[in-house]
């Protein structure tokens, strides 16, 4: 039996009064889906009519199933080479879930591009750190801020649907760009509706796909790293854990990707941000509230970053974006939560940081012991329930 393939159809455009979509019909197992990236009509000139973006978007599915990819449009030669000869074989060797496959396409090289330096604006620690480090004096001063409509499973904005949230986020980026003199671009896409994949496994691939779709604008893209390079691991369920591998291999003849901030831990970045006054008004790590609202102060991301700010004695600088008085009122419980929350690598760093502090209140330590016991009891209870069922 011949090997199964995914067809990436010829690219075409659909335009309405406001937006232009760059589309490709993707055929997987006899099912057709139209993937698209959408820009405002005035920005549609930046679309790059190549298979690059679509290939990157479907790469995790193709690797998971071990299907070859056949492109019916041109692809950048450098990207094609890097994926076929490095990224795919490495991920196949190092993971259980990614299989051998190849990409077939007719190849081309440089795109005519505006050569802009761009990064995405989310208000998070990593994003603000990238913006801080790439001001006018830097080697790559940022000209464009972008926002991609990539829905994420861990973002659950209360009382809001995804589309509405995207538009609200765009308004905030607009305001930031106006205040600090940046250009901006917003890109919508239906990747999430068409490709049913767990978001954390594909977030890097999808971010890169969006950038590749606008290569006529971008010459340098600064992808904000969520962890330090030394925390690298090929964990197929967390694509950000191996950004250091994927990101440089996504560059083309016209577009270079850098993994910005990979030289620092999140804690080190926060320390530097406390000297960057723009962060006092714009820091927004929250997973529960939109960019246009104050951080909630009680989700795991808020509590992690607030605990770090407490450690450095810098909470009061962030009164505009957090309810600091409320946080301080329950300081011991809040710190205790950050101590016991050691699920992710970044959480563990903050827990260790707090435990190393000489000023950690005894009450916080006491609460953390209660919480740990409660968590342990809950786990035992769950396991008992599981045993009863079996
Ligand atoms: Zn929050």
Question: Helices, strands, pairings?
Answer:
Blueprint: E1 5-8, E2 12-15, E3 19-28, E4 31-40, H1 52-65, E5 68-71, E6 75-76, H2 77-94, E7 103-104, E8 107-108, E9 116-120, H3 125-133, E10 144-148, H4 162-180, E11 183-189, H5 191-194, H6 199-213, E12 218-224, H7 243-249, E13 256-260, H8 266-273, H9 278-282, H10 300-311, H11 324-329, H12 331-340, H13 345-355, H14 362-389
Parallel strand pairs: 1-5, 5-7, 6-8, 9-10, 9-12, 10-11, 12-13
Antiparallel strand pairs: 1-3, 2-3, 3-4, 4-11
Helix pairs in contact: 1-6, 3-8, 10-12, 10-13, 12-13, 12-14
Helix content: 40-55%
Mean pLDDT: 94
**Most strands sheet:** 11 strands, mixed
C-alpha termini separation: 41 Å
As for the CATH topology of the largest domain, it is Rossmann fold
What's the domain count? Answer: 3
- In N-to-C order, the SSE pattern is EEEEHEEHEEEHEHEHHEHEHHHHHHH
Q: If classified by CATH, what would the architecture of the largest domain be?
A: 3-Layer(aba) Sandwich
Look at the helices and sheets and give the structural class: alpha/beta
Strand content is 15-25%
Look at the structure and give the CATH class of the largest domain.
Alpha Beta
Low confidence ranges: none
Rg over C-alpha atoms, rounded to the nearest angstrom: 22 Å
| Number of contiguous helices | 14
Count of distinct strands: 13
Shape: globular
Bound compounds, please? zinc ion
């Amino acid at each position: 039996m011949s090997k199964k393939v995914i067809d990436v159809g010829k690219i075409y455009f659909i335009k309405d009064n406001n937006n232009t979509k760059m589309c490709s019909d993707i055929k997987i197992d006899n099912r057709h889906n139209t993937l698209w990236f959408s820009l405002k009509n005035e920005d549609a000139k930046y679309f790059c009519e190549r298979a690059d973006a679509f290939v990157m978007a479907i790469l995790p599915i193709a690797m998971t199933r071990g299907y070859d990819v056949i492109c019916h449009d041109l692809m950048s030669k450098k990207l094609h080479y890097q994926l076929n000869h490095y990224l795919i074989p490495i991920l196949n060797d190092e993971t259980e879930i990614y299989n051998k496959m190849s990409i077939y396409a007719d190849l081309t090289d440089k795109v005519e591009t505006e050569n802009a330096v761009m990064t995405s604006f989310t208000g998070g620690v990593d994003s603000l750190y990238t913006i801080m480090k790439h001001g006018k004096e830097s080697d790559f001063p940022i000209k464009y801020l972008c926002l991609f409509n990539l829905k994420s499973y861990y973002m659950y904005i209360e009382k809001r649907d995804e589309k509405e949230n995207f538009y609200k986020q765009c308004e905030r980026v607009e305001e930031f760009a106006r205040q600090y003199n940046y250009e901006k671009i917003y890109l919508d896409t239906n990747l999430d509706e068409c490709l049913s994949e767990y978001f954390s496994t594909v977030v890097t691939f999808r971010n890169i796909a969006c950038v590749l779709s606008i290569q006529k604008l971008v010459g340098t893209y600064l992808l904000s790293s969520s962890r330090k390079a030394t925390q690298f691991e090929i964990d197929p369920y967390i694509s950000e854990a191996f950004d250091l591998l994927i990101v440089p291999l996504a560059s083309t003849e016209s577009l270079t990707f850098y993994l910005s901030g990979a030289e620092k831990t999140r804690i080190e970045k926060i320390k530097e941000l406390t000297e960057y006054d723009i962060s006092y008004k714009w820091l927004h790590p929250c997973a529960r509230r939109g960019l246009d609202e104050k951080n909630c102060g009680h989700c795991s991301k808020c509590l992690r970053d607030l605990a770090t700010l407490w450690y450095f004695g810098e909470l009061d600088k962030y009164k505009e974006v957090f309810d600091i008085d409320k946080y301080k009122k329950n300081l011991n419980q809040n710190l205790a939560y950050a101590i016991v929350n050691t699920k992710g690598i970044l959480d563990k760093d903050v827990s260790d940081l707090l435990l190393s502090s000489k000023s950690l209140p005894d009450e916080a330590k006491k609460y953390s012991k209660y919480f740990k016991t409660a968590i342990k009891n809950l786990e035992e209870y769950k396991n008992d329930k599981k045993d009863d069922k079996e």
